[in-house]
């Protein structure tokens, strides 16, 4: 039975972290809202699903993943579930929770990316909060991006099994998420990322290595991969990338 992924049809967003895991696993899945006739219909289908009253454990927000009778919300929880089922996480319980910890921290970074261009809230357009966004992004760009990527670099340096992967000696969903967050930051802040990745060569190398994995490479070249755009989490506003 195919997994069913419920997420907004026109953006990568947080759903992309799940898509990458499903693609790397070679798992059969249906991107439900993207199967509707047009993005408006897809969005309506997603909202109708989220509003269903027969769901015993209703998710707060998309993405959510259906696996038969199992419904999981929250990107990190979905990846924890998929990691166990598709060899994208270590079997050792200590390393398993360490992988989850890394993913949760990457989720913190993703939240900060969003708040850089929407510091006053998602109910306002970017144009309505440009001055506040410029002020917040200066700190995010100069302090927080180097701090997060520096932490990921430190993990690679200290991995007892070598610096090819974040955890152990095999690919995990955390490595896929590192790829996606670096890819997104390269789109949103190319000038800052050139400076930051120069100080994080192992992060840069892992990003390149994930992109070259056969299933990921095929996915990135396919129409299943939504392009970055200014409706998603990672947005490129030149005035914010100084």
Helix/strand layout:
Blueprint: E1 3-6, H1 15-25, E2 29-31, H2 39-50, E3 64-67, E4 70-73, H3 75-85, H4 93-117, H5 130-158, H6 173-188, H7 190-198, H8 201-211, H9 214-220
Parallel strand pairs: 1-2
Antiparallel strand pairs: 1-3, 3-4
Order of helices and strands: EHEHEEHHHHHHH
Largest sheet: 4 strands, mixed
Just give the CATH class of the domain at 93-213. Mainly Alpha
Report strand %: 5-15%
The total count of helices amounts to 9
Which regions are unreliable across 5 or more consecutive residues at pLDDT < 50? none
Q: What is the tally of beta strands?
A: 4
Kindly describe this structure.
The structure is a single chain. This protein has nine helices and four strands; from the N terminus they run βαβαββααααααα. With 242 residues, it is an alpha+beta fold. It has a domain of 121 residues: Glutathione S-transferase Yfyf (Class Pi), Chain A, domain 2, CATH 1.20.1050. The chain has a four-stranded mixed β-sheet with strand order 2-1-3-4, with helices on one face. The chain is globular. The mean pLDDT is 97.
């Amino acid at each position: 039975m195919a997994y069913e992924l419920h997420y907004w049809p026109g953006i990568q967003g947080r759903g992309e972290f799940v898509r990458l895991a499903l693609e790397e696993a070679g798992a059969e899945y249906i991107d439900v809202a993207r199967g509707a006739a047009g993005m408006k219909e897809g969005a309506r289908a997603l909202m109708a699903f989220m509003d269903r009253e027969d769901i015993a454990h209703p998710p707060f927000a998309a993405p959510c993943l259906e696996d038969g009778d199992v419904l999981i919300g929250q990107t990190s929880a979905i990846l924890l579930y998929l990691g166990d089922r598709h060899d994208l996480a270590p079997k050792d319980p200590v390393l398993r929770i360490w992988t989850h910890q890394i993913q949760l921290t990457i989720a913190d970074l993703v939240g900060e990316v969003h708040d850089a261009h929407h510091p006053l809230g998602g109910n306002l357009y970017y144009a309505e909060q440009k001055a506040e966004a410029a002020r917040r992004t200066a700190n995010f760009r100069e302090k927080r991006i180097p701090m997060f990527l520096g932490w990921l670099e430190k993990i690679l340096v200290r991995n007892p099994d070598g610096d090819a992967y974040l955890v152990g000696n095999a690919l995990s969903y955390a490595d896929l998420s590192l790829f996606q967050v670096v890819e997104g930051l390269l789109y949103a802040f190319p000038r800052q990322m050139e400076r930051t990745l120069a100080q994080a060569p192992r992060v840069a190398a892992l990003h390149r290595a994930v992109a070259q994995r056969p299933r990921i490479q095929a996915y990135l070249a396919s129409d299943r991969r939504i392009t970055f755009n200014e409706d998603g989490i990672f947005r490129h506003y030149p005035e914010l990338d100084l």
